Amino acid sequence: MSAVSAEVIGGDERASPRPEPCVIVIFGATGDLTGRKLAPALYNLMLDDLLPEPCVIIGVAREPMTTATFADHVLRRVSEHSRREVDPARWERFAAKLDYVAGEFATAATYDALAERLAAADSRCGGNRLFYFATPPAVFPMLIENLAAHKLIERRPVDARPACRVIVEKPFGRDLGSATALNDLIAKHLDENQIFRIDHYLGKETVQNILVLRFGNSIFEPLWNRNHVDHVEITAAESIGIEGRGAFYESTGVIRDVVQNHLLQVLSLVAMEVPASFSADDIRDEKIQVLRSIRRLHVEDVAANAIRGQYRGYRDEAGVAKDSTTATYAALRVMIDDWRWQGVPFFLRAGKHLAERVTEVAIHFKSVPLVLFKHEAAGEVLQPAVLTLRIQPEEGISLRFVAKVPGDRIAIGNVVMSMAYADAFHRPISEAYERLLLDCMRGDATLYPRRDSVDRAWQLMDPILHAWDGAPGVPIYEPGSAGPVEADALIAVHGDTWRPLTKAP
User: Fold this and answer.
1) Do residues 233 and 359 lie in contact, with contact meaning Cβ atoms separated by under 8 Å?
2) Is 231 a catalytic residue?
3) Is the whole model's pTM more than 0.85, yes or no?
4) Which residue among the candidates 73, 189, 231, 262 is catalytic per the annotation?
5) Which of 2, 161, 169, 291 is least enclosed, having the fewest CB within 10 Å?
6) What is the pLDDT of residue 503?
């Protein structure tokens, strides 16, 4: 349970406006992403009266299905993965919005059939269109070229009506060169304001709250700098392995899968300066300034600043090479060369098959001088204050600080004060995809990375990828552990240790 109470004092109590009517086209509609995340998110948006009215959802996939068969398929997946139970009466309302086009993504007939469905739906939805690429990244160029060739997408300026938007899943490219080529291709047919590069971490409540916590509380912002912060840890640990996705993970690895996108985006929110406003471009302007200030590594610097690992048994997974050097774990030391953070290391780590599923940001404040507590702290570790932002699971915030232990003498103990979002505000936490889909339908790109931040993130990660790709000697760690022991030395140089991978207190 949360150890604090909370009250809503602002805009959350006012009803959020519905987006304008629109058609949502999902390529890869029978795939795992649609079944686990997109369909449940759209269904829950309808339950919250946030889905546009009218709204048509057209699935496009290779599997031969009728619309009714597709609706049954979606029902099974939503029943399994929705955060709320499926209500039969409400489901019928949702199913009535579904349509389906079967066909190969490379075949013109598929887009001809889609054009017919869109023409019929446009008459009801005012011509607003949202295309979601829930497909492997290699398919993105094919989809863009075919949609443009069949005049199903077109370039439109900001706030133009009807709207035409495209959501692209990660990873956005494999390196700087491929990301640049993909961006250039999309830019041939769409304006930057129409492209929504999704990073589901940015839709999580705790990530969004970073800005409110920092800039809405005068007790934090004055301390949020090199004068008071010793170091920062950003962790994305998973307890599961690759879950049968050997071929995908072999070509991706942990840097491309998590670090280049999720962790660098979270880092930029933690470290950014105060934006001029909460508008999308003002916030993204400050985020890119952080990424530009990160010290770039040369290939020869990678060994001292980045550690990789691979869990034992990874090479036995289906689709994985027996001599694979793909990293399933990475730990990085990142330095930001700007006025606020000069000299403060940011330690990033991410990995599969670790001891616990934990995603968090830990702000470690500097230790106090021991002059006053030299006797009370004798033989004990007087731990510095730590502010932890828990992103998943159990989204919330905790603060560790020292206090006097009750008794007739001065003894020092550590106290953890915690807040869980669901408990504190007595309301359920929406899934990240619900917020992100809703924002895209409204045309709000605040939580979507802009092209310049994607390019810069690849610039920072390319030297690490070049140093690691195919290089022998990847350290092996045991499943269920905290990762390779070599990663301990990375943070030990700074005189610290990694936070234990544990559940929220």
Assistant:
1) no
2) no
3) yes
4) 262
5) 161
6) 67
